[in-house]
Specification:
This protein is mainly alpha-helical. It has 2 domains: 201 residues, Alpha-lytic protease prodomain-like (Up-down Bundle); 119 residues, 2-Layer Sandwich (Alpha-Beta Plaits), CATH 3.30.70. It is 64% helix and 9% strand. It has a 3-stranded mixed sheet with strand order 1-2-3. Strand 1 and strand 2 form a beta hairpin. The two termini are 45 Å apart.
């Protein structure tokens, strides 16, 4: 998988360099500040792809004494760097557009420049779509972020062509700066989205998709002996995940039985969740006066209270640091 990630990020890096040259040549022959915005974003593409390659290489390194959870979080850092570069490019574009408003320049060879931008936009769109798909397939935020960035670049390129076309048909060259500023705001917004996701990952913000996946897996493989699961947390480390949870088991289980049930929970999550998954399970004994009402153990010899309800496991109640005896669920 890591070899495949490196392959796609290298493809992205090489293509970004080629398109960078094409776009700057287009700006050179036309003098359009709007086309310059596209060219400047291509610099970001090249830098981001280079850093993404390093982050994928580093995230693939095994855990060590200094990094017990591995190196996967570098992918969040990579996405954040890419987002910051996109924002800086957008700010620079606004600066260039203001200068062009004060000192307007007549544009040249716009039709040929539009063809070059259109071809590069099409290439970015196809590559971006592939990278986004591969990012989801390999659970790589770096690939997914790079792909979405390229698709954003492709969209802005095609919108840019429409804007330059209007300039060419009307002869209002001042519109070049106006369109540039509009595009730059769109670029800055997309940079902010990437930075937001990066900070969320570095701060271990809850990932709803990963949590829902874990809940679904546990519900599909639920056993009667698993009386309760609570205080569950799913942390993302690049393409890897770390799951912590508390498992309530019958208090009369011997240590070997507890060990087997804990391993069963670990195996269920590790085998059915995407990516590399590490699971830590803390075992709790059941409390008859609180757990008997929803305990699903059949023919329990020590049951003190009749079974009256079944707790429906979901992301909300499984993440709470308390047993589910307080839950009001559908009666059996």
């Amino acid at each position: 998988m890591n070899k495949a990630k490196r392959h796609w990020i290298i493809v992205s890096f090489v293509v970004s360099i080629i398109l960078l040259i094409i776009k700057f040549y287009s700006f050179h022959i036309t003098g359009s500040k709007a086309i310059l915005t596209d060219a400047l974003e291509s610099i970001v593409n090249v830098v981001a792809s280079g850093f993404a390659f390093y982050s994928i290489y580093l995230s693939a390194q095994p855990r060590d004494q200094n990094h017990p959870y591995g190196h996967g979080k570098i992918e969040f850092f990579s996405a954040g760097i890419e987002g910051v570069l996109i924002i800086l490019a957008g700010i620079f574009i606004i600066y260039q557009s203001i200068i062009a408003l004060v000192y307007p320049v007549e544009l040249q060879m716009l039709p040929f420049g539009m063809v070059l931008v259109g071809a590069s936009g099409l290439a970015n769109g196809v590559l971006g779509k592939l990278l986004a798909q591969k990012g989801k397939e390999y659970h790589s935020l770096t690939l997914e972020a790079d792909g979405k960035h390229l698709m954003t670049d492709a969209i802005s390129s095609f919108v840019l062509i429409l804007g330059v076309g209007v300039i060419y048909l009307t002869g209002y060259y001042i519109l070049d700066s106006v369109f540039s500023m509009i595009f730059s705001m769109y670029i800055i917004y997309n940079g902010y989205i990437l930075v937001r996701r990066s900070v969320a990952g570095l701060m271990d913000e809850r990932n709803p998709a990963s949590m829902e996946w874990a809940v679904k897996v546990l519900n599909q493989n639920r056993k009667n002996n698993w009386i309760d699961i609570h205080n569950m947390r799913v942390q993302q480390y690049g393409g890897d995940k770390h799951v912590d949870l508390h498992l309530t088991l019958p208090y009369y289980f011997e240590l070997n039985q507890v060990h087997d049930e804990v391993e069963n929970v670990e195996d269920v999550l590790e085998e059915n969740m995407p990516g590399n998954v590490e699971v830590f399970v803390h075992a709790d004994p059941c409390l008859p006066e609180k757990c008997c009402h929803y305990c699903q153990v059949k023919n329990c010899a020590v049951r003190k209270y009749p079974k009256s309800k079944k707790i429906i496991w979901n992301a909300s109640n499984m993440s709470k640091n308390q047993k589910h005896y307080h839950e009001l669920s559908d009666a059996l």
